[in-house]
Design goal:
Chain lengths: 342, 114
């Protein structure tokens, strides 16, 4: 009889894990709370660093999960989790019972709720938007202000909800800097007449080809980078946004009027993940993401034998890292089923 | 001796070895968050004094840490202790208290007494 594994979450990590598990002959139940799989990938238009269409990655993931060994349950959440030695059972919101020999948790991340940084005015001023709102505009091919006009000056605020003790997130979300650079380029591409300003604390260009993209933004697209954390945004009578920042390299406070302000929202442990951590007794760290068994060689293992992690439920990651992490989770699951559990 | 108005100009260098960092040490001991500044400038951006006069809290932080005390002493009086800097700081630095402690330290030190 083939082994059974439950994968919780149908985003990039969950799909990759389910696909690889089924290739290895495992029967997979893939649980997704939304009505379709793909997670945050569905909200993104183009991906850094090569600006390929996100749908290409989605197609790849759909391809590997198109398998008889995968039972996909959408609109499904978990109501109860039971573990009896090395046997797991889950009761879904529809009262269905699923059993498994191992569980892969791939509950992903939520974007930081930008309205919590009240000083930036998201949800108060019409022309303050988030990185996801901008992706939606790119997808529709129409970047306009609330009054229908085309923005001429655009400000991008880095580190919204990241590296910020005031919202309880000490960590760096790692991907917002490169997202800002990517979106700045795309804004210049869509609106050649516009001026784009990125306000950053540090430019964290640690991934493959990130630094090159940063250089391209300066060289080819004339994006302006100003080092300073925006302290607040206000609205003038003509609907323009006035931002206050210190131009730290000039050593003087700077005031600027922009038409559109884009907030680079950081990544947080998902609400679904928090619920599951409580329900299953899975440990979380100080940053509220799931706490892994070992940061160097056990980043897929949890505090419960037979329960594994894949992807951004453990820390901010890009898609490349998420897919690698999900594959590593599958290798841990296979080892567990073959050598530990028996 | 006749004075002709000539002076020897001080170099621009921060002379790290000969600078006196006791003011900084006084603050480090009493306000550990002083170590956490990442120079983002949030405090200076929101600071009313900084927007109206030559005064930068971010710069003040660094000058204290480097022991550039003469410059600090001249500048520190401008702070109105409103505390907005402390409200915006993403690192949770109690900048207001740092200013208070710096004033205290200067007062206690014969060399720099205000």
């Amino acid at each position: 009889m083939s082994k059974q594994v439950i994968v919780i979450g149908g985003g990039v990590a969950g799909l990759e894990a389910a696909g690889q598990l089924s290739k290895a002959g495992i029967e997979v139940s893939l649980i997704e709370k939304e009505n379709k799989t793909g997670g945050h990938l569905n909200d993104w238009y183009k991906l850094f660093p090569d600006r390929r269409n996100s749908s290409e990655v989605k197609e790849y993931l759909d391809g590997i999960t198109h398998h008889d060994g995968i039972k996909l349950l959408t609109n499904t959440t978990i109501e109860k989790f039971n573990s009896n030695k090395s046997h797991f059972s889950i009761i879904t919101n529809e009262g269905k019972e699923l059993t498994a020999d191992a569980v892969v948790v791939a509950t992903g991340f939520d974007l930081f709720k930008s309205a919590r940084k009240e000083e930036y005015g998201y949800g108060i001023y019409d022309n303050v938007i988030t990185s996801t709102d901008l992706e939606e505009m790119f997808r529709k091919g129409k970047i306009v202000l609330s009054n229908g006009n085309v923005p001429k000056t655009i400000g991008i605020v880095h580190c919204v909800g990241s590296r910020d003790e005031k919202v309880g997130n000490l960590y760096c979300s790692k991907l917002c800097c490169v997202t800002a650079v990517k979106q700045a380029i795309e804004l210049r591409e869509h609106l050649p007449e516009s001026k784009v300003f990125c306000f950053y604390m540090d430019m964290r260009m640690g991934g493959a080809f990130y630094e090159e993209l940063y250089r391209e933004a300066q060289e080819k697209w004339g994006v302006n980078f100003i080092r300073g954390k925006v302290s607040e945004a206000g609205e003038a009578i003509d609907n323009k946004l006035i931002i206050k920042v210190e131009d730290t390299l000039a050593g003087r406070p700077l005031k600027m009027e922009v038409d559109l302000l884009v907030l680079m929202a950081g990544m947080e442990m998902s609400e679904g993940g928090k619920k599951i951590s409580k329900m299953c007794g899975l440990n979380t760290g100080e940053n509220r993401f799931f706490a892994v068994a070992d940061h160097h060689y056990g980043s897929n293992r949890s505090n419960i034998k037979g329960v594994f992690y894949a992807g951004t439920c453990t820390a901010p990651m890009n898609i490349t890292e998420t897919i690698s992490h999900a594959r590593a989770a599958v290798s841990e699951v296979m080892d567990y089923l073959k050598n530990v559990r028996k | 001796m006749e004075k002709f108005g000539f002076t020897i100009s001080k170099g621009r260098q921060i002379d790290y070895e000969s600078n006196d960092r006791r003011i900084a040490e006084y603050i480090f001991e009493r306000e550990p968050s002083f170590r956490l500044c990442i120079e983002c400038g949030g405090c200076s951006a929101t600071c009313t004094t900084g927007n109206l006069t030559q005064f930068s809290l971010r710069e003040l932080h660094i000058l204290i840490k480097r022991g550039e005390n003469d410059q600090v002493r001249q500048n520190i009086r401008k702070c109105m202790l409103c505390g907005k800097c402390t409200l915006v700081c993403p690192r949770g630095v109690n900048t207001r208290n740092i200013v208070v402690l710096a004033k205290q330290a200067f007062q206690k030190s014969d060399e720099y007494a205000i």
